[in-house]
Amino acid sequence: xxxxxxxxxxxxxxxxxxxxxxxxxxxxxxxxxxxxxxxxxxxxxxxxxxxxxxxxxxxxxxxxxxxxxxxxxxxxxxxxxxxxxxxxxxxxxxxxxxxxxxxxxxxxxxxxxxxxxxxxxxxxxxxxxxxxxxxxxxxxxxxxxxxxxxxxxxxxxxxxxxxxxxxxxxxxxxxxxxxxxxxxxxxxxxxxxxxxxxxxxxxxxxxxxxxxxxxxxxxxxxxxxxxxxxxxxxxxxxxxxxxxxxxxxxxxxxxxxxxxxxxxxxxxxxxxxxxxxxxxxxxxxxxxxxxxxxxxxxxxxxxxxxxxxxxxxxxxxxxxxxxxxxxxxxxxxxxxxxxxxxxxxxxxxxxxxxxxxxxxxxxxxxxxxxxxxxxxxxxxxxxxxxx
Amino acid sequence: xxxxxxxxxxxxxxxxxxxxxxxxxxxxxxxxxxxxxxxxxxxxxxxxxxxxxxxxxxxxxxxxxxxxxxxxxxxxxxxxxxxxxxxxxxxxxxxxxxxxxxxxxxxxxxxxxxxxxxxxxxxxxxxxxxxxxxxxxxxxxxxxxxxxxxxxxxxxxxxxxxxxxxxxxxxxxxxxxxxxxxxxxxxxxxxxxxxxxxxxxxxxxxxxxxxxxxxxxxxxxxxxxxxxxxxxxxxxxxxxxxxxxxxxxxxxxxxxxxxxxxxxxxxxxxxxxxxxxxxxxxxxxxxxxxxxxxxxxxxxxxxxxxxxxxxxxxxxxxxxxxxxxxxxxxxxxxxxxxxxxxxxxxxxxxxxxxxxxxxxxxxxxxxxxxxxxxxxxxxxxxxxxxxxxxxxxxxxxxxxxxxxxxxxxxxxxxxxxxxxxxxxxxxxxxxxxxxxxx
Lengths: 387, 438
What we know:
The structure holds two protein chains of two kinds.
Chain A: H1 4-11, H2 15-43, E1 53-58, E2 66-67, H3 69-75, E3 80-88, E4 101-105, H4 109-112, H5 120-128, E5 132-136, H6 137-143, E6 150-153, E7 168-176, E8 189-193, H7 194-200, E9 207-208, E10 210-215, H8 221-231, E11 239-243, H9 244-255, H10 258-287, H11 289-297, H12 302-338, H13 350-377, H14 380-385
Parallel strand pairs in A: 4-8, 5-7
Antiparallel strand pairs in A: 1-10, 1-11, 2-9, 3-4, 3-10, 5-8, 6-7
Chain B: H1 2-26, H2 29-45, H3 47-61, H4 67-101, E1 106-111, H5 124-131, E2 146-157, E3 164-172, H6 176-179, E4 184-188, E5 197-201, H7 202-207, E6 216-219, E7 222-231, E8 240-243, H8 244-250, E9 258-262, H9 269-278, E10 284-288, H10 289-333, H11 335-343, H12 348-378, E11 382-386, E12 392-396, H13 401-427, H14 431-436
Parallel strand pairs in B: 3-8, 5-7
Antiparallel strand pairs in B: 1-9, 1-10, 2-3, 2-9, 4-7, 5-8, 6-7, 11-12
Helix pairs in contact in B: 1-13, 2-3, 3-12, 4-10, 4-12, 4-13, 10-13, 12-13
């Protein structure tokens, strides 16, 4: 630690260069911070996937409904703690570009999904109103909705039985706030009563989009999934039961291999970064050859000089990288807020910080190794003579 | 006084940079070429210009001595331009495929308010009313050139990820071949109406597993056979197509999702639309297919475009720092040489121009390298994503010449910003001090 000052002095030797290098490292890690969360969220099947939840859907396609009668049989399967179900409703608000994520949800939905942060009073208000809907806080803010407002929804797949039109009128009875930053994406949804949906849509009743199962013991979820799928084997509504994580992941993968794209971009960024800082370090050592020789004359060992240069390189990258990640964690919520919920950047988690630090040390080490070796191999006489 | 002058100089510098950036991004190519020609003319015709050319030439000749440092600019900018070009080519390819699917000669009718076929429903009665409307083209026997279509989605394994993906099954009417003459069988044969047979689009066959001709796939517990492969050069290549009635019966549907018609002439669209609107029995919207697919491409490719630009802009900032670093080092390394030139009568402007030119030349190299890498790796590479119909759209990266042009502009802009400040330092180098420095 006592040599830290010496290392700082070396870095301060050419301030412009050090500052510029730190800035480019900062930019690289800023990008890493912003993108790694996205990658992690996509690869983990969303930040929200509950470990004890499984999704039962049609084996053939998510658009094929399941019969309501299946729910009771699923619930009776050993190892199942709770069940609930939901349907896609869809539609837009005022203009087709304002597409809404609307689900019709069954009773008990919020017991299985505490992540919505729907409390008891709100739930009671919801249950009292047949045409009531709950909306997420970010969505409500984006469109300026308040509790008590009427919410007209157009362009749903389902025509209203009473009017024959695809325009529906709902009453906003509650605005929920997700309790944790991880589940903030849920605030983009609108939830209505499955029962009302089932009675009022013209396409017939008793259709369930997918069933959500909470298992008693996540360790045994594979067995439970098999037992559930066996219920409908060889019927006309065969099911596929997946953990919520697998279910979300399969959707994320349909969008594209985001993980691969992000990894490729980060790879390109770091390749460039290594070249840049590697060149800076080589330059820095080349310029200081007489000084390093002087250090050796004063009694610094070969290994000591190697350590100094190595430390300098790692310190340079870690400083820039830490600043970059800090900036990314400041920017993430700002960008998410400024986009009005259109773009939810996941907050920078512990995993990203750890990967980030590992990357910083690794890049610093790779970049530092050649200049450090050069410094180590210096022969005092030659170096002082300028040979 | 000097402090104020300094501030003013800085202000002028950044205004200049801002203005040139705006010029670069928005100016049409001929204007840029004109500027380049003017600079070349200046170099050939005036004394200062000739001096600048001479100094720049010396700088370029000594580049090999600064190979390591110079490659930082080249590779740094290649990274930015490569990522930018690849991401824009992704968005551009998607937009081109969807836009190419629509035209002014055909119109699609969906239920009122529906924004995609999967949100729509058109009953049997409505479909026959629609096909009787005026403005639709008719074949020799007087039948309307229209296809009432069922659109469903089924799970098929995607080769790239090994997981299930939503693939669109389109049940089409007997007149489909006349409505979409670009659909051509390139392998096997067409499906026979009434049989559980499908033809697979070229793109779908390449992206998804188990769709080879002769293969059997399960649709809603029933066995269907793939009998042929078709190409259409547009988004329909991402689908499987079969007979509408048979698909509908497999999915126990009684009705359609959309009706696509070939118009008698592009201008008869208004007649057609007005006729549907005035019929009180119908609650449907008609749009030209160009309008319909254009709107889809807008939504999807806009996101990719914005993401691409933001990422490239952040990377670009990093590359500017790298370029600044390199050019400052280059100026420092050449300090004595520059001072000597100044001592024997060269003005500050040629020195400034030479440094900027050197940076921009390196940037141009980097830009070309980045665009070339993007082209080699990605051009025509097929990928698929989730489209408006909640199903996969297969498309290809499109590294177009226009995109390469954009990439090169970005490269030159980065080179300019990275070169300008070091160039000013070189031009203002105190001659005596620099000569004395070892």
